[in-house]
Amino acid sequence: MQVEETVTPYRRVILIAVIVGLIAGLGALFFFEGLKLGTAFFMEGIVGFQIPKEGQNLQDIAQWAPPDNLWMILPVICFGGLLSGLLVYTFAPEAEGHGTDAAIKAFHGEGRVRWRVPLVKAVTAVLTISTGGSAGREGPTAQMSAGFGSIAADLLGLSARERRLAIATGVGAGIGTIFMAPLGGAILAAEILYRQDFETEAIVPAFLASVIGYAIFGLVEGFEPVFGPGVTSWNVSQIPFFILLGVVSTAIGLIYINTFYGTNRIFKKVFSRLKIPNHFKPLAGAFLTGTFVLALAALSPEAAIVGLGSLGTGYGFAQLALYNMLPVGVLLFLPFAKILTTSLTIGSGGSGGVFAPGLVIGGATGGAFGSLLHLALPGIIPAESVPVFFIVGMIALFGAISHAPIAVMIMVVEMTGDFSLLVPAMGAVSVAVILIGQSTIFREQVLNRSQSPAHRDEYMIEILQDIHVGDVMVPRDRIVAVSPDDTAGRVLHLIDRTLHTGFPVLDKKGSLVGMIALDDVRDNRINGEHDELVEDAMSSRVFTVHHACTLREALDLMTERDIHHLPVVPADDPRELSGFITRTDIMKAYTQKASRSAGRRHRTGSVTLIESDTAAGKSSGGKKRTEG
Fold first, then answer.
1. Which residue range or ranges hold the CBS domain (predicted)?
2. Which of 23, 132, 521, 527 could join 311 via S-S bond, C-beta 3.0 to 4.6 A?
3. Average pLDDT for consecutive 10-residue bins of the chain (628 residues)?
4. What is the DSSP string of 101-125?
5. pTM for the full model?
6. Beta strand 607-611 with 502-506: parallel, antiparallel or unpaired?
7. What gap in Å lies between CA 580 and CA 273, rounded to an integer?
8. CA-CA distances (angstroms) from residue 556 to 85, 195, 240, 562, 563?
9. What is the pLDDT, as a whole number, of residue 3?
10. How far apart are CA 556 and CA 566, in angstroms?
C-alpha cells in the first residue's frame, strides 16, 4: 500500500494524525484493560492487596488495606520479572527499560521500530506493573504508539520525514490518551524529543491524534480526570514557598537520575562479569525490590505504607496524598523508596515507564515539603494547601528532569482537573528547569534540532546559506597557482609539498585560464613520464563562484559537477582570480558557525561558467577528485 503522490502534503499529515490517533486510542485501551486484569489477578487475587486506586472518591479509597499475605509479594514480583525478562531479551531486546527513551531514539535514528516490539512491550509491561514492579504505564504506551506509527509508515510507504512525524505524534497521542490529558500529550510530542528545543511540525498532527485517541479511550473508560479532586487552596503569599519547592525538587530529581542510571550500570557490569544471561536481570531487580518492601514492612506500619506505596505506578498512594490521608513520615521517605524500587525494576531491564514514578516521587517530595511547612507555619500554609504542594512537586520535579516543563505542567493539571494550579506550578518548574542544567532522565534526548540526525542536513543547509564565499575563501596572495608552461611534474611536486589536489592555472597576465588536478595529470601521462605541459593537461572549462555566493551554492555546484575546489572571481570579471575555496574550507566554516550558534542571514549570489578559447572541449569538471 502506498500513499499516492497526488495526495497533498497537508492531507498526508491529516492522514498520519488520524491513523496514529486511532492506533493510540485502541492500543492504550487494550493496554489499560490488560493492566487492570493483571493487577486484579496478581495483587488483589494472589497477594490479597486491596490497592488504593487513582480517581476513587474519599469513601472508597479509605477502604484500602495492606495485603493479607504480605510475603506473597516476593514470589509474585519475581514471577513477573522472570517472565518479562525472558520475553524481552528473547524476542525484542529494544523493549527493555523505559519505552519513552526508545521512542525518542527511534525518532532521532532511522525512524523504524520492529513490528514485534509494540506487542512485546505491552505484554511485558503488563507483567512488570501488575505484579508489583515500580514502573509507569506511559512509557510502554509511548513506545507502543510509536511502534504502531512506524508500522503504519511501512504500510503506507511514507517518507523518512513523515515516518518520524508519525513516531513523534504517536508518543504524544499515546501518553495523552493513557493519562486522559490530550492537550499536554500533544505538546509533549514536540517537547520531549529535545532538551532545549521543540519539534514544531509535530504539534498540530499530535493535537488531532490526541483528540482521537482520547475520544476512543474515554468512550470506554470515561472522561473523568485521572485523579479525584481533593480540597485544595493556595494564595499569592505562598508563591515564594512554591519557588523554594522548585529548588528541593531539583535536588531530588538529580538523585533520581543518578540512582536510576547508576543502578543500570551496576546491573550491566555484574551480569557481564559473571556472564549471566541478560534474560535474568529483571528477575534480580524484582527480587531486590520485593525484599526491600518486605524489609520495610517488618520495621513499622508507616514503613510498610512506604514500601507498598513504592510498588506499581504508585498513583493510588498519590490519590491518598491528594486527600491528605498520608502522614508526613510516609511522605518524607516515599520519594527515596520509590527512587530505589524504580531503579531496581527498570534499571535492571524490566519493562515500564519512568513518567509515573517520577510524578509520584515529585508529588511525595512536594507533599512532604508542604506538610513540614504546615507544621511550622500553620497560619501561612493551612492543611488544604498541602495537596497543592503535592501537585506542584509532581510538575516541578518531572517537568525538570524530562526537559518538558510545559507539557508536564499542562498534563498534571489535566489529570487533577484544577487549572488554577498553573500559577504556582509555573514558578516552581521554571526554577527547577534552570537548576537541573543538562541532566535528564531521557538519555536519548538531544540538545536541539541541529544535533538531531533527523534535522542535521536541513540545519547544515540553513547555516551554509548564511555564510558567503568571500568570508571564508583563501585570498589571492595565499593561492598556489601554476602557469600553462609549467610541467605536470611540477604539479605533482606541488601536490606532494602542499597536499592540495588541484590548482588554478594563470597566464602571464595573471588571468584565470584553467584548472589542473591530480586526475588530469594521471590521465594525460605520456609513456609514464610527466613532462607534458599544464596547458595540454588542464581543464579549460572552469566553474567559478562570486564573492557574494553562499556556501550552499558553492557546495551544490561542487556536488553537481563532482569537483572539490572552485576559483572565486568578481562578478564583473570572470577571469580575475581573487580567491579559492574547497570542500574542506566549507566544512570548517560550517563547524565554526554551528559551534558559535551565530545568527542567520540569507543572501543569494550567482555562479558563472567560463571557457577558454584554447583547449576547448577539455574538461575535468566531471572527474572525481580527492581533497588532500
1. 473-532, 538-596
2. 132
3. 47 85 90 93 91 90 87 94 92 78 80 78 92 89 80 77 84 88 90 89 90 94 88 90 97 96 94 92 95 94 94 94 93 97 93 91 97 95 94 95 94 87 93 95 87 70 81 87 87 84 87 85 59 83 88 84 86 87 85 62 45 39 36
4. HHHHHHHHTTS---THHHHHHHHHH
5. 0.75
6. unpaired
7. 56
8. 50, 32, 56, 10, 10
9. 43
10. 12
Helix (H) or strand (E) holding 599, with range, is none
Q: Write the CA distances from 488 to 155, 293, 365, 423, 614, integer angstroms.
A: 57, 82, 77, 76, 18
Chain centroid to CA 604: 35
The answer to whether the beta carbons of residues 534 and 612 sit under 8 Å apart is no
Residue with cell 512525524: 165
Check: CB of residue 485 under 8 Å from CB of residue 572.
no
- The pairs formed by 63-71 with CB atoms below 8 angstroms and a separation of 24 or more are 64/316, 64/320, 66/297, 66/304, 66/305, 66/308, 67/43, 67/308, 70/294, 70/297, 70/304, 71/294
- The torsion of the CA quartet 461, 462, 466, 470, rounded to 10 degrees, works out to -10
Under 8 Å between Cβ of 394 and 184: no
Which residues lie below 8 Å from residue 529, measured CB to CB, with a gap of 6+? none
- The helices-and-strands tally (H runs, E runs) of the chain is 25, 7
CA distances from 101 to 7, 50, 106, 347, 566 (A): 32, 32, 9, 13, 44
What are the DSSP calls for 268-328, one per residue? HHHHHHTT--GGGHHHHHHHHHHHHHHHHHHH-HHHHHHHHHTSSS-HHHHHHHHTT-S-H
Cell numbers given for 312: 506499581
The dihedral through the CA atoms of 510, 511, 517, 519 has a sign that is negative
Give the pLDDT confidence score for residue 530 in this predicted structure.
63
Q: Which residues, in sequence order, are bridge partners of residue 582?
A: 565
Dihedral angle, C-alpha 322, 323, 325, 327, nearest 10 °:
40
Residue 370, SS3 per DSSP: helix
**What CA–CA distance (Å, rounded) separates 178 from 169?**
14
Contact 452, 446 (CB under 8 A): yes
In degrees, rounded to 5, the angle at the alpha carbon of residue 298 between the alpha carbons of residues 297 and 300 is 75
Nearest in space to 95 (alpha carbons), one of 150, 141, 140, 31: 140
Using alpha carbons, select from 543, 524, 542 the residue that is nearest to residue 534: 524
Residue 398 contacts by C-beta under 8 Å, 6 or more apart in sequence?
Answer: 253, 355, 358, 359, 361, 362, 408, 441
Residue 565 has φ and ψ, to the nearest 5°, of -150, 150
pLDDT of residue 542: 86
Let me know if 325 is exposed, middle or buried by CB neighbors in 10 A (0-12, 13-18, 19+).
middle
The grid cell for 446 is: 538531544
What are the cell numbers at 187? 505538546
Cβ contacts of 85 within 8 Å, gap of 6 or more: 278, 279, 280, 281, 282, 283, 349, 350
Cell 512554591, residue located: 242
